[in-house]
Amino acid sequence: MATNDLLLRAALGQRTERTPVWLMRQAGRILKEYRAVRERAGDFRTLVTTPEMAAEVTLQPVDLLGVDAAIIFSDILVVPDAMGLPYVMDEGKGPRFPRTVRSMAELATLRTPDVADDLSYVAEAIRLTKDGLGGRVPLIGFAGAPWTIFCYMTEGQGSKTFSMARRSLFADPAFAHALMDRITTTTIAYLRLQVEAGADLVQVFDSWAGVMDRATYREFAIPCLRRICEAITEVPVTVFAKDAWFALADIAALPCATIGLDWTQEPQWVRSITGPEKTLQGNLDPCVLYADRAVIARETARMLDAFGPQRHIANLGHGVHPDTPVDHVRRFIDSVKDHQHRPA
Ligand code: CP3
Description:
Layout: H1 6-11, H2 32-41, H3 44-49, H4 51-65, E1 70-71, H5 78-82, E2 88-90, E3 94-96, H6 104-107, H7 115-118, H8 120-133, E4 139-144, H9 146-155, H10 163-171, H11 173-197, E5 201-206, H12 214-231, E6 237-241, H13 248-252, E7 258-260, H14 267-274, E8 279-284, H15 293-307, E9 312-316, H16 326-338
Parallel strand pairs: 1-4, 4-5, 5-6, 6-7, 7-8, 8-9
Antiparallel strand pairs: 2-3
The chain binds coproporphyrinogen III.
Coproporphyrinogen III is lined by residues 24-29, 38, 44, 71, 73, 75-77, 94-95, 142, 158, 205, 207, 319.
């Protein structure tokens, strides 16, 4: 079996014959094969904590869609879970934490997990997935960024504004720094565990970066991201800070290989801020995949031309919507693979 290392070469800034492609949330509800395993599992937590099933759904998009990377099936919420805040996944509504952490006193009740033990199911899923891949494509590990995890731990559920999380940054900054610090320490241990188990690249998802302002992001989030990037030296690190156009210069100054972009961040404009040394990942609007085949091909080509042929990993600007038709997802992937870059 030929090995496809396009993703790793692109992340490391080495030449690629074509742009690699994968999709955020590719292991999920777009595939009927995923929904079948999910049904067999019964609930989300069982799927996440059963390595055989997690590995099975991780491999599905590689076999069924032809993506250039697998991403381990798990969730960012396994970290707060291991720290002593169990999540509940309400069907159709998203995650919820019955218990929250909003003060130093509550922070003191958190545990410092032994990730090799508490999150051994993720390491085992990675090992099984690597066996199943047999080197066909790289495997991406991931974690939530400390700020996004902080949002869920303080707020207790999803929110449009995360005002409870933001409130604590200003009302009790000592607590906010302390909780961010605790999350960062566990996240580093957790990402190291994934790398030891076989993850070839890791992505840090800061899904709620966009609710902060630049100065606050600089004070609270960037130092934690720096600690993570500096701790993970064996594999490339991708930082995806959604809606955080204001933080791009600060993220570009981190020792990460790749920067993930959402669809609002225009490639050439981003390049002018980050300089030539970073690989960029993204950033088609996931809603383009609801359009017909011609529009998907046209918009994908436009995106690829805007990024150029090197130092780019094609992806969506956020997770693929669960009700996207699978043949439209395939059209996106094939459009990337077939694209002919115009000679410079
Ligand atoms: O294919 C992949 O990308 C790997 C799997 C993956 C999941 N969650 C599985 C999942 C990844 C990378 C995540 C990350 C994640 N989880 C993020 C960061 C990325 C982002 O989307 O911004 C966040 C914020 C979460 C928290 C979370 N988990 C939410 C808000 C939800 C509910 C929304 C939804 O899509 O239903 C989840 C549940 C979840 N995580 C599902 C999947 C496939 C759907 C649940 C199901 O299958 O029943």
